[in-house]
Amino acid sequence: MSHPVRFIVFGVLFSILWSSASVAGKFGLLSAEPLTLFDIRFFIAGFLMLSISRLREKSRWPTSQEFVQLTIFGALNTTLYLGIFIIALKEVAAGISTLMLALNPLLISILTALWLGRKILPREWGSIALGMIGVSLATFPLLRDGHATVRGILLLVLSMLTYSFGAVYYSRIQWKLSRMNINGWQVLIGGILLLPLTLFFAKGNTQFDFKFLGSMAWLVLFVSIGAVQLWLHLLKEDAVKASLWLFLCPISGFVLATLILGEPLTLYTIVGGILVIASLAWGQMSNFKFLK
């Protein structure tokens, strides 16, 4: 498989798996509190990935400097991003939180330009703008009926900032560990850092039934391991172009929710999805010689 095609296949697969977390999470939340569900997921995923990395790759123990880097990445990519996001959801409608995901490509582009000195092409800025218009249109029905507090919006923006910082930070580091090893450590460290917050808010309402176990299995295997492994690969290729795939997450999330949960798929969603796909094609145009 050629490199450009692989990048696109990985990007589409990442978008589907990453957006499936909301559907799987809804089943899990019927039996567990949000922070409890996520923290158990992080611990299981972290230990599983580190075990696989050790057995398959004979991975070594990280150096002290690498532990610092992994802790920073885990704090940004797991603890702060998801911890702040969950708290914000108490004050912000689901539609608005979905829309906020569209901020990440723009934030990653700006941070990359400022931090890494990468020049952002006009076409890339245009594709980002088109993608934001598409996501805004797709979520309009939810926004129209949604409510939010100023603090909730600010917390959502802060959570997106931490995720974007984590993406740029990861792409900046010259990692000598494998992606599986990095992912395992950052998820495990992120779970450890999130544990005090989990214990503070926990009320002991978790039921380890079929809905919990099924949700946990999907979140660990297909999201924490599968989707994040794809994301780390895309980031190493190009942080800005990788961020464009985040536009597809809200759209694929709507489709999965319609097929699995029976939620309505509106004309706004369809038109918005077309615009998002157009923005992705525009942003990836340089990968195809016949489109140059």
Features:
single chain; 292 residues; mainly alpha; 13 helices; 78% helix; globular
Secondary-structure topology with pairs:
Blueprint (H helix, E strand, L loop, with lengths): L2 H26 L5 H24 L6 H25 L5 H7 L2 H14 L5 H17 L1 H6 L4 H23 L6 H23 L8 H28 L1 H5 L4 H14 L5 H17 L9
Helix proportion = over 70%
Shape: globular
Distance between the termini: 20 Å
Low-confidence stretches: 288-292
**Rg on CA atoms, Å:** 19 Å
| Beta-strand content | under 5%
User: What's the main sheet like?
Assistant: none
* Mean of pLDDT: 82
What number of structural domains do the residues give? Answer: 1
Number of extended strands: 0
Structural class: mainly alpha
Question: Number of helix segments?
Answer: 13
Succession of helices and strands = HHHHHHHHHHHHH
Task: Please give a structural write-up.
The structure is a single chain. The protein is mostly helical and 292 residues long. The protein contains 13 helices and no strands. It has one domain. Helix 6 (122-138) runs antiparallel to helix 13 (267-283) and helix 9 packs across helix 10 (210-237). The two termini are 20 Å apart.
